[in-house]
Structure formats: C-alpha cells, structure tokens
Design brief:
Blueprint: H1 2-8, E1 17-21, H2 26-42, E2 47-51, H3 54-60, E3 71-73, E4 76-78, H4 96-120, E5 127-130, H5 137-144, E6 148-152, H6 156-175, E7 183-184, E8 192-193, H7 211-231, E9 236-239
Parallel strand pairs: 1-2, 1-5, 2-4, 5-6, 6-9
Antiparallel strand pairs: 3-4, 7-8
Length: 243
C-alpha cells in the first residue's frame, strides 16, 4: 500500500513534505514546532506536518469543533495520532511499561493511516523526523521508502555519552556508580566524572521509577543499528537544542 500510494503522486522534482512526530509533552512539542518553522524558513516551498498524540493535540487546540481534526497555522499542519491514551496518560494509575507496549502497538498503525491519507490527498510524505523514544518510526519510514531522522533535543555530548554507554562502557560505569569522583575517558569526549553523567546511567535497581528510560534509550540505539544494517548507510540525527 505504501509504495503504491507513493508512485501514484505526480509531484515536482523538488517537492518535499516533512512529517515531524513528537511526544505529547511541552518539552518535546516546542522544539518540534521550532524545527517546523525553521524548515519552512530554509525551504519555503516545502510542506510540514507536525503530529503529536491526540491528548496533546486537544490541549493545544481546545476550541476545535471536532477535537481531533487537522489544524493549520502559518503553513504547518497539525494532525494528531493515537498513542492508546487519547484522554491522556495518568502516571498516578496508568502503568508506564504498559504505556510503552501500547504506544508501540497503536501509534505505528495510527501514523501509517495518516501517511496514507496524506498521500491520497496528493501530499505524500518524503521524510519522517521523529523525537526520542519512537524506535519503531525507523521501521515505519523503511516501509514507506522514505528517510527517517532522529531529532535529538538535548546537547550532542549527552547523545555521545548514551551511545558509549550502550557500546562498550556500560559495565565500567555501573561498577563505579557509587564513586561520584571516578573519572571516565569516553572516546571523543573530555574526561567525565560519574557525577557528570546523566542520572539514568547509574540506576541499577529494577524498582527505580526511572529505570524504564534505560530500556527506552537502548531501544533507540538498537533501532538506529537496525536502520544501518538494512540501508547500509549511517543513521541521520539532527541535533536541535533551543537556547
């Protein structure tokens, strides 16, 4: 279906349509909006669609007659996807692990339907840019034959630190997690003490409420490795810290 819809479109050679997919929180939505307008300033002829979860879309546009309808502001289209928690995720009683499972099950189907509808309207997506913790977006982009880009909204040094943690340095970091002054030498970085590292990297207790994020970061890097093995090219990562 994806390839069929793609070949049916008769677009000019320089046609570009960026689909930006982001988490339903202000700390992710604001950088995504900044990126959308930055793309329009650099490529005025491009189309940009920003998609976040239905719950966040409803908070952003509370006066819409139809809560989940598409909204366009200053050339950016906003189309929500379902993450399985359309009324919002409630940490006080919703399970975080179940949320990740439901997100991976529900969101790809919802986003696939959005991509199909856009293609049917003559606006096929040509590039997918996704925020953190959407490792399955790599597979979705591959299914549609379009490039995907990870939008990293933290400092690049943090990305490098996580990368080295999952590629050869996990054991040494965990073995010195209680020695805050222990100094690490990670490739390409100046010496860092244990206390300088992101706190997620020194969590060992399975009962810690933030332990789940280690697995999410691991999934992210594994998806990038999978993309490299399938496409034969290096994954693309866009660093965009708003100052």
């Amino acid at each position: 279906m994806a390839n069929e819809l793609k070949t049916q479109s008769n677009q000019p050679e320089n046609y570009q349509h960026f689909l930006i997919v982001t988490q339903p929180s202000q700390g992710h939505i604001n950088p995504a909006r900044y990126l959308a307008y930055r793309l329009l300033s650099l490529i005025p002829s491009c189309h940009v669609t920003l998609s976040t979860a239905i719950s966040a879309h409803r908070r952003m546009f509370p006066s819409l007659p139809v809560p989940d309808q598409e909204m366009t502001i200053r050339q950016v289209s906003y189309i929500p996807f379902s993450d399985g928690y359309d009324s919002g995720f409630e940490p006080s009683f919703d399970d975080r692990i179940e949320r990740i499972k439901k997100l991976a099950s529900v969101a790809p189907k919802s986003l696939s339907a959005i991509i199909d509808r856009l293609a049917e309207r003559g606006r096929p997506v040509t590039c997918i840019i996704h925020a953190l913790f959407f490792p399955w977006m790599v597979d979705l982009a591959l299914a549609y034959g379009v490039p995907s880009i990870l939008y990293w909204i933290q400092p690049a040094m943090i990305l490098s630190t996580y990368y080295h943690y999952f590629n050869g340095h996990e054991s040494i970091i965990l073995s010195h997690k209680d020695d805050r002054d222990f100094t690490l030498s990670l490739p390409g970085l100046f010496p860092l003490k244990i206390c300088d590292l992101p706190s997620f990297l020194t969590i060992t207790s399975d009962d810690h409420p933030h332990k789940i994020f280690i697995g999410m970061f691991r999934d992210m890097f594994e998806s990038l490795d999978r993309e490299r093995s399938i496409t034969g090219s290096k994954p693309k990562i866009l660093n965009g810290v708003i100052k």
